[in-house]
Structures are given as C-alpha cells and as structure tokens.
Structure prediction request, 620 residues.
Amino acid sequence: MTVFYAFCAAAIMACAVHMVLSRNLMRSLLGLALLSTGVNLALFTAGGFSSDQPPIIAAGAKALGVSADPLAQALILTAIVIGFALTVVLAAIVMRAWRATRSVDARDIDALDQPEPAAAEAEPPHG
Amino acid sequence: MADAVLLIIPVLAPLLAAAGAILLRRRPRASEALTLGAFVLTLLFSVALLIRASGGGPLAVTVFGGWPVGIGVSFTARMPGVALVVVTSLIALAVAIYSHAAIGGRRRFAGHDALILAMVGAVNGAFLTGDLFNLYVWFELALLSALGLISIDRRQMQIGAAMRYATFGIVGASAILAGIGILYGITGTLDLSVLAARLAPSAPSVATAAAAALLLGGFALKSGLVPVHVYLPSSYGPAPISVTAIFAGLLTKMGFYALLLVFAGLFAIGSGGMGAAQLKPLFGWIAGATMLLCSLAALAQNDMRRLLAYHVIAQVGYMMAALAVGTRAGVEAAVFYMIHSMIVQTNLFLGAGAIQRATGSWQLSTTGGVLRANPWFGVVFAVPILSLAGIPPLSGFWAKLLVFRAAIDAGDFVLLGAGVIAAILTIFSAALFWSAACWKELPNRPAKRLPPSMLVGMGVLSAATVAIGLAPGMVHAAAQLSAGALANMGLLG
Prediction:
C-alpha cells in the first residue's frame, strides 16, 4: 500500500515538474499546483497506513487505540490551504502578465527584463 | 507567563500591526507611524528576550491552544534564533526609517506597510519556532508577502520578477515539505528537540538521505546557494529599493538559519553526527562554488542592484563554507557571519537606493559625485562597504577571520584558498563600486541632496556594524552559545 502511494506521488510530481518547466505560464501555474498535490500525497503516505479507524478516543478510554495518524492529516490540511493561497496569488500575477503583454509565454515576460526608463523609477515622497 | 509573552510579542506585534496597516492604508502617515511603532515594540521585546535567554534559566517553550508539545504551534527561545530576532527587528526599524523617503503614499496604499510587517513577523516566527512544520509555514508566509512586495508597483518588469521568484520559491517550498514529511515518517515527530534526540542515535539510511537531500535543496534555494541561485539577482532587483534591502538582509539568512537548524542541529554535522562524512565534501563544493562564482559575477555587473545581489549570494557562500568545515568553531563562525552579513547587506542596498536618488541612475557607469553633495553619506556608506570588503576593525573582518581560522584549524586548505580568493575579488569589487558611485564626478549635473531619513536609517545600521567591529566579543559569545545550543539540541526541551 505504502509503495503504491509512493509511486503515485512520484508520478504526480514528475508530471508537475514537466509542466513547471513549460514556457506557457498557465501550464507552469498548473504544474506548481500539481506539485503541491504530489507533496501532500507524499506527506499522507509518511503518516503511515496502520489503520483506517478515525482518531477518536473511545468512551471511557484514556488513550487513542490503533487508528490513522491525525497529525499528518492536519499538516496536509494546512499545506492545502497554503498551496491554494499561493496558487491564487500566482494566478493574479499571470493574469497581470496577460493583460500587459497579451501573452502567457515566458519569453515575452522575460523580454521585459530590460533596464527601465528613469522616469518610471522616480517617485516623489508621499506622492 | 511573562516568558510566554516575551516569546510571542516579536512575532505577534508585526502580524497584528499588519492587520492594522491594511485598515489604515488610505492614511499613509498613520500607517507609517503604526509600522514604526510596531518595529520599536518588536525591537524592545526581542532585546528583553535575548537578555532573558542568555541569562540562563529554563528554555522558554510556548504552545498555543493547550496542546502538548509536538502538536500545537510552539515557539522556543533557542540561541541563534533569539539573537537573529534582535538583528531582524533592528534592520526592520532602520528600513522603516529609510522608507519615510523611499516609499510614497501610492505604495503604502498598495499595501507596502502591511506586507513588510507580515514578512518581518514571518521571519521572526521562523527564528523562534520549535517545530519543523511551522518553520515551513513561516517560510510560506514570507514567500507570499515577498511576492506582494516584488510586484507592488505592478510594472511589467516586476511581474516577470515575481513570476520567477514564485516559481523557484514554490518548488523550493515543496522540496522542504516533502523532506519534512519523510523525517516525520521516520521519527514520528516534528518538534525540533525531540527530532534531534531521535535522529542522533539512528544510523544513516536511504530515508534520512532522501530527507537531507530534499531539505538541503529547498533551503539552499531559499538561501540562494549555487547552483540554485539564478533567480535571485533578477527577482530582487525590480522591487522598491528599501524592500530589496530587507530581502537581502532577511530572506537568504532565513534560509541559511534553516540549514543551520537542520544540519548543525538535527544532523549534528558540527560534532560528527549522522552523515557528516558524506555531507561535508558536498557542502564544501557548494560553498566554494558560491563564493568564487558570485564574487566573480559581481565584478561584471554595471547595475548596482545586481552587483549587490551577487555579493549577497557570495556572502551566504562564506557562511556555507563555515558550516562545511564541520566543526564547532565552524558553526560559531557561521552564526557570527550571519549576524554581520544581515546588517551589512541591508545597509549596502539602502546605500544603492540613496545613490540612485542622488544621481538618478542605477548604472555604475552613469553615477558619481554623491560625496560632494552629501558628505554624511560618505560616513554612513563607507562603513558597510569597508565591512563587506573585510577591512579591520569592522564586523566583516572578524567574520572572515573566524571562518578562515575554523578552516585552518580543521585543515581544510582548499576551502580556505577559495575563501581568500573570493575575499580579494570582493575587495576589488567594493573598491570599484565606491569609486564609481562616490569619487567619480557626475558629468553635466551635480548630484542631488539626500533626504535626512535615508541617512538616519543607514546610520542606525552603520552604528551597529561599527559596534560589532569594536566589540566583537559580545557577538562571538552569542555565536558560541548558539553553537552549543545547536549541538545539544536533542538534550534540551
């Protein structure tokens, strides 16, 4: 079971790396989202598959019996939220790039990496 | 309880002030006052925390929500972290003073103050966290606020820089998270002290090697080490210069702090812990390549921001060299170098911003004559540039001396040679920078006068550099405490 999940995580991450390396910004955005999904699956696998019992302490018992590891799942929930926030911010940046250049090709964005005109640089204090 | 408050304020004050700054964004002056106030408060509390932590006594551990240690959000006053929080707060305050002239109402309306506050809160959180997963969360918060700051003017060039920074940053963060997941799978804990105690007696395995490789890759990317440094100069440049300055001071050092925590703490490279024999040569190659390539690359730059960004990376190379020596003295040197470098790198970028303000250009070929119009600028800028070059008695001299001595004591002469060559290249580059910006005459027009807040902000950091240079014993004592705390991480808490 663990090996199967590990290979799934590896396959997802391989697809993600392929997409991140693409010149199309939309693809690399999706690739980054996919990458965090793959990592989450790896994290889930690290929690172990000892049992499918929910981590609820039985009535009268003092300690948790054999059950799924709740901490790993709590970590994944946090990681999902963070990944979502990053994806949204990145989508906003890509959209800005599209509006500025009508292109989502990384080469067009890079073409802007030129010395800027001095006029755009100066900003009066409290202007 | 008092300890708990002391421990949380350096993280909580900037984060709460960030929320306030969002509400005040239509009133730039109030927002600026709030930012300054929050940083003063943070600095006071972090100094109090440093006094408390170095005065012995039990290690302060605070856990939110009534969870047992290892599950809740925990903060720990561990030595290098506490000292770095003081430095971070000082830098934040100096940059906030400088920003009075550098950041106008439009950028404050765009959320500059809230983002800077959130980033300082995240950096302080990373320095004070007692838990590996929370370290990752603080890195992500810093990444998000950095993205906002890079693209704050929404200029096209900034969009490209933000895209590049985001791609590299997220890939690095994913590697870190995967590494953390594997460590959790091996040890069943994320608390740094427990993790160190459980890792130390176990033998190296494929799993620990995979975790170490992922964490090394992720944190090396965050620190800008060769060969994953390529994004750094082009994504730091387009941000407003005071923001670039705070990035240079905090973000790469945050990555290196995590490297220290993982490799000097968890894997105990300083005391021949797990995998030290395999890690040391690898670290040596990374450090040597970083120092040499980036100080060479700095020589070829004409844009001040790119030149200084390469120096930022080269300086991280020195810290990595100290870690690669792999002795207790090496870890001490790395901590000393980090404290010195945070202050000096920030100050250099602030100086570059002042030069641009006075001459209207970022290119060294078209700057000059700043000293004639601003004699005081010479005083506050000479300190960081001489310290970068490693001229005694400034902080950079002691930092390099400690690294070289650690390398000599360990018999690592290849690393020593790389460090000395890089140091000579750095002196050369610093001299070129100074003469192009300050001594050369500006053709056709005189340089403008600088606003006093810029000089005051730089003066605060220059004074700190001089103080470290004149009394290196204090910082060295802190570095010794840090090396001890990192080596004994498994025994505490």
About this structure: The mean pLDDT of chain B is 89. The longest strand of chain B covers residues 61-63.
